Amino acid sequence: MEAGPQILIVDDDAASRKLLARMLSAAGYFCRETDSATDALNRVHEDPPALILLDFKMPGIDGAEALRRLRADPNPAIAQIPVIMLTGHGESEVICLNAGADDFVIKPINAEVLRARIETQLRLHSLRMQLQLQNQELEAWRRNLERDLAAARLTQQALIPQKPPTLPGWEIAACYRPVIEVGGDIYGWLPIRNDRWLFWIADATGHGASAALLTTLAKLLFHHGNAEQEGPAAIMEAVNNDLRGIFGGRSFMSAMCVALDAKNGQASVVGAGHPPLLVTRFGRGTEAIASSAPPLGLVEQSQFAETILELNPGDAFTLYTDGLFGAAKNSRPRTTPTQLAGMINPFAASAEALLELMLKAAAPDAAESPRDDVAALVVRRSN
User: Are the C-beta atoms of 283 and 292 separated by less than 8 Å?
Assistant: First the structure.
């Protein structure tokens, strides 16, 4: 027969110890005995019991002092051993509980009451141990997640261009502010055929590592589409087809791109489910160019129509994600793209100044933290 939980009985009265041992052994417990609290403190390190029955009143170190020393043990497995104090009438149960007892039983001991309290304490101790193990596993998972997010953050930072291209007669400013370590926004620029530059931005569904992985794919697909196609509409169509082929419509992203001829200021705009492109005319206000197609990867055979515009000296266009006009974490309502366009100062002296004014207009309280990732890219023709 397999031995039950081990109980250490600590009582200087030999008759009481023997009675308790017979009672508990008959109930299936494995009992050990000692008449000294000092000896008990030594034994728990050699062979820790599942529970201790500790007499309150003993010569030398009494039960309360022994319990205080046990609870102060540097080994958590020893310090957390359940202890039921055995007290006589008139002895202070409050002292026992303040010393760290899990429960107490008053002498003369009722066998049924004692067994019930032992079972309760063993069950509670088991639950505490399970909870501690789960907390340790959760902490390990959290550390692993933080390492993964840190690696994802470094990867995504490597994907976000840090230095804009040098285009004579043009200024470029950009910002990227993820809600957490990584986000679902990405932008970029690359030279395309006929001496033009493609400026693009995308916003993947979701947040965190999964969205960051989708942004990695987005950059690869835009570069691949650029290598295979000529114009912005054809590039967007290629990206849409690739996304649709990979995910079958289960994942998608909004996107917008602008193909710019830096020599004459002519540009072609294509949007797919993305917030409108904002075109700021120097000294005259801001207009918006809406997307003409649904998000990339959502449907097959999308039609990507190009909108042609001409940028004069002082004019600028802004690519951004919806986090720019999303509400912060308070009661302030969301800013619409139309309202955002009306907030932009058409006399901004540079692309950087235009971006800063736009960010301030969208979130005037610097202490506010956004609900969504924020990315913006301003390209301005110098005066």
Answer: no
The pair phi, psi for residue 10, each rounded to 5°, is: -120, 105
Residue 252: closest CA among 270, 273, 237, 222: 273
User: Residue 348 above 70 pLDDT?
Assistant: yes
Beta-strand pair 51-55/266-272: unpaired
Residue 49 neighbours by CB under 8 Å, 6+ apart: 5, 6, 7, 8, 32, 43, 81
- One-letter identity of residue 240: N
pLDDT at 367: 47
Choose between 2 and 177: higher pLDDT.
Answer: 177
Digit-coded pLDDT (tens) for 4-38? 899 999 999 999 999 999 999 999 999 999 999 99
pLDDT for the residue numbered 294: 94
Whether residue 167 sits in one domain with residue 19: no
What are the pLDDT digits (tens) for 226-253? 777 778 999 999 999 988 888 887 888 9
How far, in Å, CA of 24 to CA of 322, rounded? 69
CA atoms of 266 and 99, how far apart (whole Å):
82
Residues 229 and 177: their CA atoms lie apart, in Å, by 31
Contacts of 119 (CB under 8 A, 6+ apart): none
pLDDT of residue 1: 44
Query: 83 with 120: CB under 8 angstroms?
Result: no
Query: Same structural domain for residues 167 and 120?
Result: no
Do 273 and 355 belong to one domain?
Answer: yes
Q: What is the total residue count of the chain?
A: 383
DSSP letters along 110-156, please?
PHHHHHHHHHHHHHHHHHHHHHHHHHHHHHHHHHHHHHHHHHHHHHH
Angle at 99 between CA 24 and CA 118, to 5 degrees: 20
What is the arithmetic mean of pLDDT over 275-303?
91
| Global model pTM greater than 0.90 | no
The range of the structural domain enclosing residue 210 comes to 160-381
Is 230 in the same domain as 319?
yes
